[in-house]
Specification:
The protein is of the alpha/beta class. The chain is about 30% helix and about 20% strand.
Length: about 290
């Protein structure tokens, strides 16, 4: 009996320490000390010129992706996930997408997931709050008590223990006075130039917000290679294996370390199912 009890205790302890995004090492790391492989335009799935991923959002999460971005636009008063315009590509209502994420989060109680939502149409932030409430995902959303510096973020273990393990950012037109858990991306992050061409892929200059210092900011490195045709930049599926290789990803993150003293918190990628995405994430986190 004593042996069985001891084994049960060991099994429980093992499950606890291994329960932070699948790695024991992450439990004691602040959110700001973890590098996430991110899915650029996670909802745009297919092989068309406006698509950016080959696998569903659920499959991306199952793969190990914990940072998802999606682009939204107003379509007849409904928040839709559209690429540039809903006439070009319409992946459906944001509420349905949030419901998919919520279902996955329900079934994975030891994972922290981040969403970055774009709001180029300046849709009323309260409508986003309505979509989160209708999907139920708001119940998981993390709301900081004040603005957070790099050393102020909770650990992944703390986020998981609190139950507030979905972090939400919005690029423009957020208002934490109205929806406190949708955080202003550029109050916390800087981004490298987006949609980089091959000769720009390894750079780590600050693009947005313009004119700021990297000090105290999380880093989002855009590593989704594009090619240009007739003046239009398109996602480069043909070379995704090279773009998403450890060598290519770390070439950029090493430049970030040299320029800003640390590796990015997010490496944002197209076609996350191709290449060495999770291997690169592990290497950047030293696990």
């Amino acid at each position: 009996m004593r042996t069985a009890t001891a084994l049960s205790a060991l099994a429980l302890a093992s499950s606890v320490v291994a329960d932070c995004n699948g790695r024991a090492e992450y439990c004691d790391r602040r959110y700001s000390q973890v590098t996430f492989a991110g899915s650029h335009n996670s909802a745009f799935v297919g092989i068309g010129p406006s698509d950016n991923q080959l696998s569903s959002v659920t499959a991306q999460l199952n793969q190990g992706i914990r940072f998802l971005t999606t682009q939204t636009h107003d379509k007849d008063g409904v928040i839709q996930m559209c690429h540039t315009s809903c006439a070009l590509l319409d992946a459906g209502p944001l509420q349905d997408y949030l419901g998919t994420v919520k279902t996955w989060v329900d079934g994975h109680p030891n994972d922290v997931v981040t969403l970055l939502i774009t709001n180029g149409d300046a849709i009323d932030i309260n409508k986003f709050g309505d979509a989160f409430r209708a999907s139920g995902l708001d119940s998981y959303a993390f709301t900081p008590s004040s603005s957070l510096g790099l050393d102020d973020w909770p650990t992944l273990g703390d986020l998981i223990s609190s139950g507030n393990r979905v972090i939400v950012f919005m690029d423009y037109n957020s208002d934490t006075g109205k929806v406190p858990y949708i955080l202003d991306e550029f109050a916390y992050y800087f981004e490298t130039p987006f949609d980089p061409l091959e000769d720009e892929l390894s750079g780590c200059n600050i693009d947005r917000p313009a004119g700021v210092s990297s000090d105290g900011r999380l880093i989002l490195a855009n590593h989704n290679q594009n090619y240009e045709i007739f003046g239009i930049d398109l996602p480069d599926l043909v070379n995704a294996g090279d773009t998403n290789s450890v060598d290519s990803i770390t070439a950029q993150t090493n430049n970030c370390r040299n320029q800003h003293g640390r590796v990015p918190n997010v490496v944002l990628l197209d076609w996350v199912v191709i290449g060495e995405v999770m291997e690169a994430q592990d290497q950047l986190n030293g696990v």
